[in-house]
Amino acid sequence: MINDTLRVGVYGGTFAPPHVGHVVAAKAFMEQMKLDYLFIIPTAIPPHKQIDASDDPIHRLRMCELAFEGIDGIVISDIEIKRGGKSYTYDTLKELSRPDTRLFLLCGTDMVLTFDKWYRYEDIFKLCYPTYVRRESDPLLDARIVSKIGEYYQKFGVMFRKILVEPIDISSTEIRAAIKEKRDVSGMISPSVEKYIREHGLYV
User: Fold this and answer.
1) pTM to 2 decimal places
2) Long-range Cβ pairs for the range 184-190 (8 Å, 24+)
């Protein structure tokens, strides 16, 4: 806590499944933004992604509990799952806003590039300090990201802060495909998450 103001992080996503890249990003986010605590928030229905018809958000919530288990300051929240319907970041930030709290939002590269397509994105800028993390190392995206961040600053006076972390080029899509094809996923997800996936027959 700095000057009696709580510094609270918000890290949302489908987490289908949560993998080591998510955990590394969360830890770096907490450390570099000096967060008092961090909400990990699995979406109910992501507004910008297609998910499998058999998806059960409760499974994703439970996997997040396993993936982030034991990390001080991390809170797994079912706020969006309880709300139901499409999970809009604006609604979540509005619900978490408090006079004594400063909210920090963690975005991925794709989210930064499409932020101005989000529901009430201008109001999101008023509710939080946006940050982003690169989970890929594609140099072709560098100029696009810099240009987009510059555009947001020019139009809205908002600067996306970069979380510095070595990119871990893993995607949940890649993991689901590997599980379906019975390939090894150790090192991509935690053993407890892998066990949960096997026990519940997910992504097969």
Assistant:
1) 0.94
2) 187/20, 188/19, 188/20, 189/17, 189/18, 189/19, 189/20, 189/67, 190/20, 190/23, 190/66, 190/67
